[in-house]
Amino acid sequence: MQSNTNLSYSFMNLRKLILSILGVLLIVVAFYGAQLIVKSKNTPKPRPNKVIKSVFVDIVQNGTIPIVISANGNLVAKRRMELYAEVQGVFRRSKKLFKAGQKYGAGETLINIDASEYYASVQSSKSSLYNLITSIMPDLRLDYPDDFPKWDAYLRSFDINKRTPPLPEMTSEKEKFFISGRGVLTNYYNVKNQEQRLSKYTIAAPYKGILTEALVTEGTLVRVGQKLGEYINVGVYELEVAISKTYSDLLKIGEAVALVNLEGTENYSGTVSRINGRVDQASQTITAFIEVRSASLKEGMYLEANLNAREEPDAIEIDRGLLLENNRIFVVRDSILDVIDVKPVYFSDERVVLKEVPNGTTIINKPVAGAYVGMLVKVYEENRTTAKSNEIE
Q1: What is the pTM of this model?
Q2: What is the number of alpha carbons within 13 Å of residue 128 lying toward its C-beta?
Q3: Which pLDDT belongs to residue 111?
């Protein structure tokens, strides 16, 4: 009985051991099976084909590069006049309307202020002077018979409706004392002062031009010191441009300058007329004035000027975007990109002038995206491609 019990117990233990071994084996087989399945799904990545970029190049041939300074500004009339009133009165109508854009010839009346009241006062003073000289004529005949004829001729030529003529020349001290003692000189210069003031009631055009601003109209009460308008001479203008002080010693008066309008449709020729002798402390520039003549120009027009400052020998000119940091540029050596040091001598908005680039060096003439030193490139033979296309045609 006991032996049967022991045998059953041993059999159960053996069964548990076999089941445990089978379980472990099943887990191991499942793990390795899963690994195989995962590895079978990992497809190898394709290797990308190596791309060789084509680049446009130039062969360096140093030469003399003219340095052209670009500047811009607005035209201003070379001769302009601001009109101010020096007397008071009502603005009267003249032959031409006092309006902006009105053209006048030299000597034509620009402004006519009512001077009737003051004119009567001047005439009264002239009459008083005439009467005063007439009253001293008997004494002149008796005391200074040699001087009487010239004063008699002066009275005969005196016209109260014209400007007062100059007094006769006094040749002796006695004559001068006599004339001055009778108050003739005082009255004469009072009349001349009034005549001078009377002339300011009318403003005439000093030269042929056009009225660019009109601030009064007919019937306006004009006051002393009031601005009336602006008048300019047409056809001759000046362009004020700021130039770097680096080129101040290169600019010369009389030098020709090429000008172009904002749209680039019209070209003009000008000359440097003046150069300021002071450097602007804030911008470190000097001001140059370019004179230009053309009937098609208008004051305030925007023009761009190109001044020939100097010529730089043994240099090349490239696009400004090709210059790298630390003053370097890309070159091609055996189909591989490299860099060399250069010396910039002048920058414009789009171009840069370089020195110390050896002749025969192959440089890139168009930017390459993602370029770096050691990059493998292919030179684009533009000339050969163009030649072949021409042959086909």
Answers
A1: 0.62
A2: 17
A3: 92
Residue 161 has pLDDT above 70, yes or no: yes
- Token reading at 391: 């042959």
Measured on CA atoms in the order 213, 216, 217, 223, is the torsion positive or negative? negative
Please give the mean pLDDT across all residues of the chain: 84
Is domain 55-65+312-392 classified as CATH 2.40.420.20? yes
Cα dist from 35 to 29, 30, 43, 265, whole Å: 10, 9, 15, 76
Domain boundary assignment for the chain: 1-43, 55-65+312-392, 68-76+234-311, 80-114+201-232, 117-199
Say how far apart CA 113 and CA 204 lie, in whole Å.
12
Provide the pLDDT for residue 145: 87
Asked if 384 and 54 count as a contact pair (C-beta separation under 8 A), the reply is no
CATH of 68-76+234-311, one of 2.40.30.170, 3.10.20.740, 3.30.70.2760, 2.60.120.1440: 2.40.30.170
Q: Name the residue with higher pLDDT: 118 or 7.
A: 118
Place of tokens 């003219």: 66
More reliable by pLDDT, 150 or 47: 150
